[in-house]
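pasting for ref
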Amino acid sequence: MPRLVDAYLEYRSRDSGDGFPPLDDAEPPLLPSSGTINNIELVDLFVRRNATLYAQAHHRFPNENLIYHGYIGCSPVFPTLAISIRTLSAFRQAHRTCPRFNIQAQCKALCHLHNVPYRPYLRKQFTVAFDIYLEIIHHVEQRMQKALGRDAPDWRLHNECPACFYRLEDEPSLTFDWLVSIDGNNSLKRWDTSLYGVKPLEDSRTSRSTYWLSEEDVDRFKDEVKSKKIAQTVNESGDVTEYDDDWVTEEPDADIPNQFNCVDRWRNARADVRKKTFSVFQESGIFVATCRHRFVLLACDMIKSGELAKYPLAMIDRLVSTYGPNGACAYDIGCAFAATANHSSLGAKVRELNLRFMVGAFHGHAHNRLCQLNWHPMYIKGMGHSEGEGCEHVFSASNELARSTRHASRFHRHQAIEQHFAFWNADKYEALTRFIRNHYREATQTVRTLTAELAIVKEALKLTDDDFSRFIIEERAYLTSLKQHPQRDPLKVRYTQALDELEERRHAWNRAREAGNGALDGIAVGDYNAITLALKQAGARLDLAYAMLQNAEQMAGHLQLQLGIESRWEIGGPEYTRYKAQGVLGEYHEALDELERLVVMRLFELSKLSMLDTGNVIQSL
């Protein structure tokens, strides 16, 4: 490889811009047996020809000769076909701007340009040449970074985003010295080839970039979460759903109302569906970390699982070890993960370095109100306009890679993802000044507008600045003080409902008796068929009303026995009125919660509006 890199650098030094530099004629070609490549097929964007390429005296390998002429062969020793470097470079940049444009599409385009039929082996040949091209580019980049003194293992992390990590002399400190977002995404899944009965090909190549956390680094935290009972919830259809996510480290406080537990809001699929999904994919997605300016910092594979606790724990370990104290991390389940991190082996480090967890602004609005007051960026001092949703911006672009990586090998999947991340970060670096300028203008405009509006509100309501902070504290204290109703209260509410049902069944029984007594009214004397039918209908109605009355009586008696009530409550009495009002208020709160859930669900659906490759029903597969 070093000789190919040298040949490539020599080629680039002679290149005048068209991809085919002039050949050095000062040195005569050697004999054909000394390195000449005869009758090789050369493929360019618009030219396809056979030619004989003469080697230079210092060339030892066929691909040195090919690179000298501007091509890369599809075989290391006896190449019969070579693809021009500028064609490979053009595909690399086209794939950069359109990730769904894959090698197969490029090969078909070349076949159409050269008027030849497409064959699957052409894609394999192009893949080999493109892999060598990227390997050469990687070694050139390594040489350049070493010459510039940028070859330290953590240099990229310390310098990826200059706005986040470059410190000026006497620069004022911010509330948070660094801010990252972490999240998982299951679009970049890769099929497990063993499902087809095909043994995966051996490929010893590994990822080249410093984006990836290794499986060993991640698995160090696989046993961090204490074992617990599998959580169960009952969905709307009455089915019991088991959840096996391991980032919940402890059971919820029994005194905290269910409405204040955020876990169930992020159960995106039932356990059986997820297990089926994970079983068919070797890598079920990626987990990434980004800075507040949306530069990708780290990534790792999720192996046959969902967002287990080990993935964010490994990310946090690397981030706090690299960036140090006074940081912040946004995660869509940051409220629950904070407890996980504090109970793990990282707990002491997290507390010592004062790492602040929070929930992203977009996902945070789906959490309950108490959670928002503690974890939403809107209520955290020092967050400003940072929404903590940088990963979502990254995923909106990386999802385009799904088609080309779903059936790729492990190496080629990593290669495509890290190439995409490198291009993404380069684009973000180019747009960084505009990003900061636009957000600065937006922030100053917001300050001017809201300051004027706030002055009017304070004048009208006779408020001071301290009142707003006090309102937040009081609201948080009020919601925290709310406790789950005693177990007997729901039973008493149910008892009032049973009394209402019993009263209704009594009225139905009385109406059935009255209807039975008058069943023969209006029927002519001697019309035996009509009389028989009327008596049967009256009897059936009477039997049904009596059975329902008995059931209601048994239910009311059962609840009365459970509650230990000596004498049955009277409808309209003080106890009945109290718990009847409590039941109505509970139904009202449930309706509000359902309305909030539907609104948030609709917002998620609208986020897919007008996006390609989405249907009316968004499924997990």
